[in-house]
Design brief:
Length: about 475
């Protein structure tokens, strides 16, 4: 990434020498010859680091540091002082300087100090707003499941990670994780990072549906001070915070077309531009995205860019629904029982045989997330050591497969494929409720979003009546 440095030095030759050296090291450099000039310049220019002399005409370097510290506390300042002038250095540090450098300036030492300063600044930004959860214990081992469906997902992840460990460059392929809500797409994303070659770098996750569309751009790409009404200070975005690591974009299908274009540019050029800035910055990161929507259908409808779709899904991983994972249901249920039992101080809890039978019969429209929540409630309200069927917050009408499903399956010819049976079932249920999606979803034992997803995927539309 290219960084911007503001030099405040009245010695024209020294300032020029430092500027030439730093520009050779790929820094963007601006020079001012007084504190007053620098203060005026900082109203429109927003550097990453300020390097200032103390002995300046007019205001001193210490006075400049105090001004900067009040107006932009996150901006790092390095003070240059005369050799042996410890008093100036101490005063500068008290005023808010990050570090000091004695003259005559050794350029190699200056470069090392700038690297240290920028690393500290980046860490502060990351800790202040991007890393909401720890990624420890989030690798493949955290993906519980022995079913063939889950073994297939794990094997694909292992193959991908193995191939990436042998890559000769750092441009890792984008991964698109697909699956219904609550299936554990986030766990797959974390496993790709934690067990991958970038595991020591940041893992930034962001749900594209979590904030209003008009705020998404600033959150992802950052902004300069004064870029808009509420931009009271410069702020790096999540993309910059993830530099060197992985950026996980959940619910990427919720992103509007304008922002999709910016994301495409990031994928193609590996550059970003903060809102209010004219300068592009190089970024090195791996994009992992996830969706529970049918992006192919959205591409056909014109609500998702075709070029972005293909750039995001260089690698595609499909996470199976819980109902298709067989004995994994009980494996996960027991895991959550033990986990929540420890949290609530109720160790030694067990499911009765009848409870486990109910867990297996239920078809889990909310997938693993629903299972976890139901088990947590059962633990929280448990009075004894055994969890009874009545303690599971399962809707009775959904504890068995919908009657209409069995009826339709019997009517289909024996050679009918599963997609044909699904299509027929959905159509019959929608017709039965006069295309009331909420009622139909309830009859089918799935969520409204899952039914809408199937309607889109199957290309169904309400019949036009004469």
């Amino acid at each position: 990434m290219e960084y911007s440095i503001l030099i405040v030095e009245d010695d024209v030759m020294l300032a020029e020498n430092i500027q030439n050296y730093l520009e050779l090291k790929q820094f963007e450099v601006t020079v001012c010859h007084s504190a007053e000039e620098a203060i005026e310049r900082l109203k429109t220019h927003h550097p990453d680091v300020v390097l200032t002399d103390n002995s300046l005409p007019g205001q001193s370097g210490v006075e400049l540091i105090r001004h900067i510290h009040l107006s932009d506390p996150l901006l790092k300042v390095i003070m240059m002082t005369g050799f042996g002038n410890i008093e100036d250095a101490v005063e500068a540090m008290k005023a808010g300087a990050f570090h000091y450098l004695t003259k005559p300036v050794v350029l190699a030492e200056l470069k090392l100090l700038l690297d240290k300063t920028l690393a500290a600044q980046r860490m502060e930004h990351q800790l202040s707003f991007y890393q909401s959860r720890d990624v420890k214990n989030s690798g493949l081992e955290a993906m519980i499941g022995n079913s063939s469906a889950m073994q297939g997902v794990k094997q694909m992840i292992r193959q991908l990670l193995s191939a990436e460990s042998r890559m000769t460059d750092a441009d890792l392929p984008s991964v698109l994780i697909e699956g219904d809500t609550g299936t554990g797409k986030e766990l797959v994303a974390r496993a790709l990072h934690v067990d991958g070659v970038r595991h020591k770098e940041p893992f930034i996750e962001f749900n594209c549906a979590s904030i209003p569309a008009h705020l998404l751009e600033a959150e992802l790409f950052g902004h300069e001070k004064g870029a808009f009404t509420d931009a009271k200070e410069r702020r790096i975005g999540l993309v910059e915070a993830a530099d060197g690591g992985s950026l996980f974009l959940d619910e990427v299908g919720e992103m509007d077309l304008a922002l999709q274009a910016k994301l495409l540019k990031l994928l193609e050029d590996r550059t970003i531009r903060r809102i209010g800035s004219v300068k592009e910055r190089k970024i090195n990161l791996r994009i992992i995205s996830a969706t529970n929507r049918n992006l192919e259908q959205m591409v056909q409808e014109g609500t998702f860019r075709r070029d972005l779709f293909y750039r995001l899904r260089i690698i595609s991983i499909k996470v199976p629904s819980l109902s298709s994972r067989g004995d994994d249901i009980l494996l996960l249920a027991r895991h959550f029982l033990n986990l929540h039992g420890k949290r609530y101080g109720k160790t030694g809890l067990k499911f009765t045989a009848e409870t486990e039978a109910l867990l297996k019969e239920y078809h889990w429209p909310g997938n693993v997330r629903e299972l976890r929540n139901i088990v947590e409630q059962a633990v929280l309200l448990a009075q004894g050591a055994l969890i009874m069927p009545s303690q599971l917050a399962i809707c009775p009408s959904q504890s068995e497969s919908p009657p209409s499903q069995e009826h339709v399956a019997e009517e289909e010819p024996s050679e009918a494929s599963l997609p044909e049976i699904e299509r027929s079932l959905v159509i019959k249920t929608l017709n039965k409720t006069d295309w009331n999606v909420t009622k139909s979803a309830r009859l089918l034992g799935i969520t409204r979003d899952m039914l809408r997803y199937r309607i889109d995927r199957l290309g169904l539309s309400r019949p036009v009546r004469g």
